């Protein structure tokens, strides 16, 4: 991996002040005895790549804002010079530790996009899912961020909680719209093995209920002027996440930090999830060189999430095959059932198709 990289960088900060019972990300309790050596090792890993003039930088986690102000500033100081002028620099934050000091540090080190985990606008629900903020606090933090000058803010919302009814979903979406942010990510609760929710036998919503909730969410968001440009992401015009579009366009990027993954020089890699190994500089755990078949699978997996799907010309250039000919039978069946649309230039899934994207992908994979 010696070529210089000037596209995108993902940085994983695994620390959190509390561990949420539904979370299956790579995360650790924040403790200074771990965070200090972690940042030292992270900086060495960053230096091991030739990074410059990056179009996008994304600091995610975990909770980047759980770092102390001093640690947080050292991280921003390290990566900010790698961003090109006009680049997008996003930092994730939790409401409970997004202080005025952290916001000011971000503004002075060129962070120009915030992604804030709100998850619910109902305080009882927030307590139930192990979040330690109130919706009022979330409103105050967004107000403060706007006063400091942030003009590109994403908020995360979840739905599909146990015993949630449609009225709660409607009021969540309306409350989120009233925050007037530029971008909203909306995810349904997934109960993954190994989480506390899984051990407590908490069940995900059934698919009919989930569909009813999602249809309501879609129409409320569209009425408010948001476009769903990706299966779970809504933006006002011109505020799509440039960094995430790199993933969804299946383009290469560098990922650093505990458990982070990256895609460089036709190789997908995943970093170790062991803090011990990471601190010893044993960063990469797994590497996979992409065969033409894996590349095609990944291309479909990423592009079908997008409202615009993909260009048929690009598909032919990349895979030396005409998509509409190779998959003609499947395409006409999807088209007949209103799950997908093919035009002379592109192929994309409809709202109905996006709801069953996993099944559609499997049908394509069988024909690869
Ligand atoms: S704050 Fe985020 S990363 Fe940390 S435990 Fe909760 S959901 Fe997971």
Overall description:
With 368 residues, the chain is of the alpha/beta class. It folds into two domains: 240 residues, pyruvate-formate lyase- activating enzyme, CATH 3.80.30; 63 residues, no CATH class. 41% of the residues lie in helices and 23% in strands. The chain contains 16 helices and 17 strands. It has a nine-stranded mixed β-sheet with strand order 9-10-8-7-6-5-4-1-11, sandwiched between helices. The chain has a three-stranded antiparallel β-sheet with strand order 12-13-14, with no helix packed on it. A three-stranded antiparallel β-sheet has the order 15-17-16. Strand 7, helix 6 and strand 8 form a beta-alpha-beta unit. Helix 2 runs parallel beside helix 3 and helix 6 packs parallel to helix 8. It is globular and about 60 Å long. The mean pLDDT is 96. The site of iron/sulfur cluster has 11 residues, from loops. Iron/sulfur cluster (SF4) binds next to loops.
Keywords, separated by commas or semicolons:
368 residues, alpha/beta, pyruvate-formate lyase- activating enzyme, nine-stranded mixed beta sheet, three-stranded antiparallel beta sheet, 16 helices, 17 strands, 23% strand, globular, binds iron/sulfur cluster
The share of residues in extended strands comes to: 15-25%
CATH class category name of the largest domain: Alpha Beta
Sheet having the most strands:
9 strands, mixed
Task: Evaluate the radius of gyration.
Answer: 21 Å
* Class from secondary-structure proportions: alpha/beta
Number of strands: 17
Going by CATH, the homologous superfamily of the largest domain would be: tm_1862 like domain
**Which hetero ligands occur in this complex?**
iron/sulfur cluster
Query: What separation lies between the terminal Cα atoms?
Result: 29 Å
Can you tell me the overall shape?
Answer: globular
Spatial strand sequence of the major β-sheet: 9-10-8-7-6-5-4-1-11
Low-confidence segments, given as residue ranges, are none
Which architecture of the largest domain does the CATH hierarchy give at level 2? Answer: Alpha-Beta Horseshoe
The protein's oligomeric status is single chain
The count of helical stretches stands at: 16
Mean pLDDT: 96
Q: What is the share of helical residues? A: 40-55%
Total domains: 2
């Amino acid at each position: 991996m010696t070529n210089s990289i000037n596209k995108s960088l993902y940085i994983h900060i695994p620390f959190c002040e509390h561990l949420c019972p539904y979370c299956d990300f790579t995360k650790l309790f924040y403790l200074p005895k771990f965070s200090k050596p972690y940042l030292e090792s992270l900086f060495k890993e960053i230096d091991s790549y030739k990074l410059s003039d990056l179009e996008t930088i994304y600091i995610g986690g975990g909770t980047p804002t759980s770092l102390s102000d001093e640690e947080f500033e050292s991280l921003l100081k390290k990566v900010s010079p790698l961003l090109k002028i006009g680049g997008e620099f996003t930092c994730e934050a939790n409401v409970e530790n997004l202080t005025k000091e952290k916001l000011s540090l971000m503004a002075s080190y060129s962070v120009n996009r915030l992604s804030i985990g709100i998850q619910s606008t109902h305080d009882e629900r927030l307590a139930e899912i192990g979040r330690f903020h109130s919706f009022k606090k979330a409103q105050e933090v967004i107000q403060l961020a706007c006063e400091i000058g942030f003009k590109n803010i994403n908020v995360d919302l979840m739905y599909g909680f146990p015993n949630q009814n449609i009225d709660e979903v409607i009021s969540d979406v309306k409350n989120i719209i009233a925050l007037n942010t530029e971008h909203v990510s909306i995810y349904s609760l997934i109960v993954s093995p190994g989480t506390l929710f899984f051990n407590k036998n908490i069940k995900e919503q059934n698919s009919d209920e989930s569909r009813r909730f999602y249809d309501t969410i879609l129409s409320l968001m569209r009425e408010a002027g948001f476009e769903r440009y990706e299966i779970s992401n809504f933006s006002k015009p011109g505020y799509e996440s440039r960094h995430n579009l790199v993933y969804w366009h299946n383009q290469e990027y560098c990922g650093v930090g505990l458990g982070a993954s990256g895609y460089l020089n036709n190789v997908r890699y995943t970093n170790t999830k062991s803090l011990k190994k990471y601190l010893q500089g044993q960063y990469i755990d797994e590497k996979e060189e992409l065969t033409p078949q894996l590349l095609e699978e990944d291309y479909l997996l990423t592009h079908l999430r997008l409202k615009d799907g993909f260009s048929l010309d690009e598909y032919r250039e990349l895979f030396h095959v005409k998509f509409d000919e190779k998959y003609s039978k499947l395409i006409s069946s999807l088209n007949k059932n209103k799950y997908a649309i093919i035009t002379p230039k592109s192929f994309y899934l409809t709202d109905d198709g996006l709801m069953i994207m996993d099944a559609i992908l499997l049908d394509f994979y069988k024909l690869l």
